[in-house]
TrEMBL record:
Gene Ontology cellular-component terms listed: membrane
A Pfam family it matches: Polysacc_deac_1
NodB homology domain mapped to chain residues: 45-227
Origin species: Alkalicoccobacillus porphyridii
GO molecular function ontology, one term from the record: metal ion binding
InterPro entries, A to Z: Glyco_hydro/deAcase_b/a-brl, NODB_dom, Polysacc_deacetylase_ArnD
Record key words, sorted: Hydrolase, Metal-binding
GO process terms (BP): carbohydrate metabolic process
PROSITE patterns for the chain: NODB
Protein name per its UniProtKB record: Polysaccharide deacetylase family protein
Length: 245
């Protein structure tokens, strides 16, 4: 009986290792095609802060004020439904030099979602952003960070670069784990070329704002420049690796 249990356990472990390998291979395959990125390999002291699910009438403005105080730039992956409610916030983000990315219209994804529905989600959000800012977004972040061939290819067909985040840089602020926890999730692991995940909406984001009050000046004091994702790509000479955005 014990032998059988051991054999089953070993099989599970092997299966798990192969699944990790397959997931990692997917990532690197996508990066080589230039259709998706997680971070940028560079020694230049550059980091991109990104914010999902906004805009929010309170938290997006607080985060924007904090960024502007330190002359830092960031990329905001917005949902079309929120953009429609808060066009003035989107306009202010654009006016202040921050980047607007596409995060679908309804912030919804299902494994059964068709390509047609995903395309409609992307295009409707794009339309709202262009109506307000006059600028076409070219970065797309899939909901929940879930990606597959259909999502990557659909985004590419619509002239979008898929942007994920560094595997070691999920702040986990979405769980409201505490200000200190968010800070510890980010600062000790920070390195050049990181794309860091935060949220400015989708729940109460007081902890995110308070954590950023520590994280932003700390990163700057360590010599990092906080830039948009597009500038991270351009400033590290990776522009030619990826398709022209």
């Amino acid at each position: 009986m014990i032998k059988k249990v051991v054999v089953v356990f070993v099989c599970i472990c092997i299966s798990f290792l192969f699944s990790i390998k397959g997931f990692a291979k997917d990532r690197f395959d996508y990066e080589q095609t230039g259709k998706a990125i997680w971070d940028i390999p560079t020694t230049k002291p550059l980091i991109a802060l990104t914010f999902d699910d906004g805009p929010h009438p309170i938290y997006t403005k607080k985060i924007m004020d904090l960024l502007d105080r330190y002359d830092a730039k960031a990329t905001f992956f917005v949902t079309g439904s929120q953009v429609e409610k808060l066009p003035e916030v989107i306009q202010q983000l654009a006016n202040n030099g921050h980047e607007i990315g596409n995060h679908t219209y309804h912030h919804f994804y299902s494994h059964t979602m068709s390509k047609q529905i995903l395309r409609a989600e992307i295009k409707e959000t794009e339309k709202k952003i262009v109506e307000i800012t006059g600028v076409y977004p070219h970065l797309f972040r899939p909901v929940g960070g879930y990606y597959d061939d259909m999502i990557i290819e659909t985004a590419a067909e619509e002239n979008y670069q898929v942007v994920m985040w560094s595997w070691h840089q999920d702040s986990k602020d979405w769980a409201n784990p505490g200000v200190g926890h968010i800070i510890r999730n980010v600062l000790p692991k920070a390195q050049s070329g990181d794309i860091i995940l935060f949220h400015d909406a989708g729940g109460k984001r007081t902890q995110t704002v308070q954590a950023l009050e520590v994280i932003i000046p700390a990163l700057l004091n360590e010599g990092y420049e906080l830039v948009t994702v597009s500038d991270l790509i351009k400033m590290t000479n990776h522009w030619t690796l990826f398709k022209q955005l």
